[in-house]
Write a structure and sequence with these properties.
This protein is of the alpha/beta class and 345 residues long. The protein has 2 domains: 2-150 and 311-343, Alpha-Beta Complex (Quinone Oxidoreductase, Chain A, domain 1), CATH 3.90.180; 156-289, Rossmann fold, CATH 3.40.50.720. The chain has helices at residues 38-46, 96-99, 145-149, 151-164, 179-190, 203-211, 247-256, 277-282, 296-305, 324-331, and strands at residues 2-8, 11-16, 26-35, 48-49, 52-53, 58-59, 63-71, 83-86, 128-132, 136-138, 171-175, 195-200, 216-219, 237-242, 257-265, 286-289, 315-320, 339-343. The chain is globular and about 60 Å long. It starts with a strand and ends with a strand. The chain binds zinc ion (2 copies). One zinc ion (ZN) binds at residues 37, 62-63, 152-153.
Length: 345
Amino acid sequence: MEALVIHAPGDLRVEEFPTDELGPGQLRVRVRCGGICGSDLHYYQHGGFGTVRIQQPMVLGHEVAGVIEAVGEGVTAYAPGERIAVSPSRPCGLCRFCQEGLQNHCLDMRYYGSAMRNPHVQGAFRQQIVVDAYQAHRLADHLTDQEGAMAEPLSVALHGINRAGPLLGKKVLVTGCGPIGALAIIAARRAGAGHIVATDMGAHPLSKALKVGADEVVNIAEEPDGLARFAVDKGQFDVLFEASGNERALRGAFEVLRPRGIIVQLGLSGGEMTLPINAIVAKEFDLRGVFRFHQEFATAVELLNKRLVDVKPLISATVSYRDSARAFALAADRSQAMKVLLSFD
Ligand SMILES: [Zn+2]
Ligand SMILES: [Zn+2]
């Protein structure tokens, strides 16, 4: 079976890759579809992000859906032929954070396609993979494989919502409308946000933001002061979802966030930012990070299965894994693409 293996920046190869033996409690899955994530792009373009670097060849990918080919001994909840989304979150279950229900902070996490640990954890951009049954989440018949693969980034957005706390009736600002920002709009809407304003520098992402439920959008490239009217009375927004990873976007939002506003930082820029700590102190902001997710994956699939969220407007293209250079170039082009998926048929 073949896989997409990153060797160095720009050097992504289709290679034969062995599938693990099917063990007890496991499923052998024929991967059908995988979404290209910002982190996959970082590995492809720069060989990593921040201090995380590729040290050895690694299969990319962690946003996949597929069909079960075989079930291991003791598995009764699943059967061959069923379509599933695969959660790439594989915590140990034993460490102190797993025991506290903070699996995303697991001390022994084996998240797919991540160079954070050494040897790296191989990813899921491959034709076939063996997973633990707990990673499987059944997809409703009406969902496409592509929508199923969107469960992972949707989970990140849902974890951001959980970090923000109750959103019912709240005024929400989303800065940066790439896939995660757009999914944050969908998730915030679902969570009861009263009014959602989204910003970006590009017309294409903003058009998608409107499609998935933003009430208003501001193109900061064309209208740098477009948020000024929200600065009255010490700021209008209750919650900021910052998904651009851009320091200026975050600083600019300080003016329009009300006192005790909650800042949820979703974008993983990998870099450092200089922030006016006096503004955070004087306006009593809560600055909250978001790192991956765990139980939100089940919620994401449930919302998709029940048609309570619609991610289809964010799916830009599906490209064969054999044509990965084209797929990754398209995924990096914000003027025409949101989420690009690879097909492994
Ligand atoms: Zn992802
Ligand atoms: Zn753990």
